[in-house]
Automatic annotation (TrEMBL):
SUPFAM superfamilies per UniProt: TPR-like (SSF48452)
Organism of origin: Shewanella youngdeokensis
Protein name: Tetratricopeptide TPR_2 repeat protein
Keyword Signal part of the UniProt annotation: yes
InterPro entries for the chain: TPR-like_helical_dom_sf, TPR_rpt
Keyword list, A-Z: Signal, TPR repeat
Leader sequence residues: 1-18
Source organism, top-level taxon: Bacteria
Start-end of each TPR repeat: 200-233
Length: 455
């Protein structure tokens, strides 16, 4: 019995700073952050997770803190947090360096759960990190910094696609109908989204930044990629018509015939571009599959999503004389669901190895205990309880990301406007002749925040 307790203690000590995620599910840890962001004092949200950035899941907490600061309008603080997350990704990229702590965490995961493995976000999170960092630089007045992050985002879209192709072979790790049902459910929940790393919103954001910062050719390329993912967005269609004409592209006549000619900017007008983000991405749920090995109960816990994909509904921006209706461009929750589906084969391999390791350990404890009278049952019970308690699904993901993204674009007379989203309180913005006003609207549910910049 003492050996069993000692072994359990050693395994827990190996998990180090990841202990929170092992026994306290991640959504519960981030709930106070989201609540603060949906209040009148969002400035306090980042501080809730700041102390965790030095831990094993520091990359994830840095992403949360960066996004929290960004929603609150503190772009400089957000930039610093995102820089920490970017450096953490760089450590993961250095395949030649495997630290002792990482090796210990991977080994411990065979006997505890995937939460002890240091968090490395899926591709779509990393892409959005650079997308948001580009906006941080832009709203902080650093155009060159914004362009650097735009190019990093574009490069990642390509590299993540290549990485996925190499690792997309299916793995049959468990013979259990529950697993097949979950795969089907995730596929239905993701709707028409087939790849987590192909994000029309990210392509559109980088396209907008390329265009307003004087790189129309690169903007045209990004708009075309966005339109391939979100082909029915009317603003993307008009962007392609406009830039194809401006750049004398051979596709101009075809685009104009398909989507009509674009409105021209008139003298005394400025351009308005709206990027609207709404809600928060959904939280992962846990499913548990119980079974026995050699007469001992084991459980397999996997992360999943409840199939509640929300249809993207247009929103009205009021205050420009006539309503400006947004058009949906991305379901970020569909990207999260698809990313989980893409990772499920690897998760199943780890799960199969963990179940086998736990079964072997249980049998070893029972075998050793049988040599000692009156201790067999206690050791076996302790080991089985340990197995059940520590088998927790990995529910970690970047939870302060938006659920949906919309866009809109128009030309209006230069001047001051008081605009609002649907029935939200109005905000003042300026439009200047011949210039572009970029309006970033973040709707967290109870509060809607407007950030604008003239370029």
């Amino acid at each position: 019995m003492k050996q069993t307790l000692l072994l359990i203690t050693m395994m827990l000590s190996l998990s180090g700073c990841a202990l929170n995620s092992i026994f306290i599910n991640y959504p519960s840890q981030i709930a106070p952050v989201k609540a603060q962001l949906n209040s009148a004092t969002p400035q306090q949200a980042a501080a809730i997770v700041e102390s965790n950035i030095s831990g094993a899941d520091g990359l994830l907490y840095a992403q949360e803190a960066g996004r929290a600061a960004q929603i609150a309008g503190d772009f400089e603080a957000s930039k610093r947090y995102f820089e920490q997350a970017s450096r953490a990704y760089g450590v993961f990229d250095d395949k030649a360096k495997l630290s002792v702590s990482d090796a210990g965490a991977t080994a411990t995961s065979l006997l505890l759960n995937d939460n002890v493995i240091p968090y490395r976000g899926p591709g779509y999170e990393r892409i959005m990190l650079h997308q948001y960092q580009a906006l941080n630089y832009l709203f902080s007045g650093d155009i060159e910094g914004a362009l650097v992050e735009v190019r990093r985002s574009n490069e990642l879209q390509s590299s993540e696609q290549a990485r996925y192709r190499k690792s997309s072979e299916s793995v049959q790790a468990m013979d259990n109908g529950t697993i097949d049902a979950e795969m089907n459910k995730l596929g239905q929940a993701a709707g028409t989204t087939t790849s987590s790393f192909l994000n029309a919103y990210s392509y559109y954001t980088t396209g907008v930044l390329h265009e307003i910062l004087g790189e129309p050719n690169d903007a045209y390329i990004d708009y075309r990629k966005a339109a391939q993912i979100s082909p029915n967005n009317p603003y993307l269609q008009q962007d392609l018509v406009r830039l194809a004409g401006q750049l004398s592209m051979p596709q101009y006549d075809e685009f104009k015939q398909r989507w009509g000619d674009t409105k021209r900017q008139q003298q005394g007008e400025g351009q308005v571009i709206v990027m609207l983000e709404r809600g928060f991405v959904p939280e992962k749920q846990s499913i548990t599959v119980p079974f026995t090995i050699n007469g001992n109960w084991q459980t397999a816990s996997l992360a999943s999503y409840t199939p509640t994909l929300t249809q993207l509904q247009p929103a009205n921006i009021k205050g420009f004389g006539t309503n400006l209706t947004t058009a949906p461009i991305a379901n970020i929750d569909a990207l999260a669901i698809t990313a989980l589906k893409e990772d499920l084969p690897a998760a199943l391999v780890r799960q199969a190895a963990r179940i086998y390791a736990k079964s072997e350990l249980t049998q070893s404890v029972e075998s050793n205990s049988k040599r000692l009278k009156n201790q067999t049952d206690y050791a076996a019970i302790a080991m089985q309880l340990f197995n059940v308690v520590t088998e927790q699904a990995d529910r970690r993901s970047w939870l302060t990301l938006p659920k949906q993204a919309h866009i809109a674009r128009t030309y209006v007379k230069a001047g001051s406007y008081s605009i609002g989203l649907n029935d939200a309180a109005p905000n003042k913005i300026e439009v200047k002749n011949g210039r572009t006003t970029l309006i970033w609207v973040i709707d967290t549910g109870n509060y809607t925040r407007f950030y604008s910049i003239i370029i």
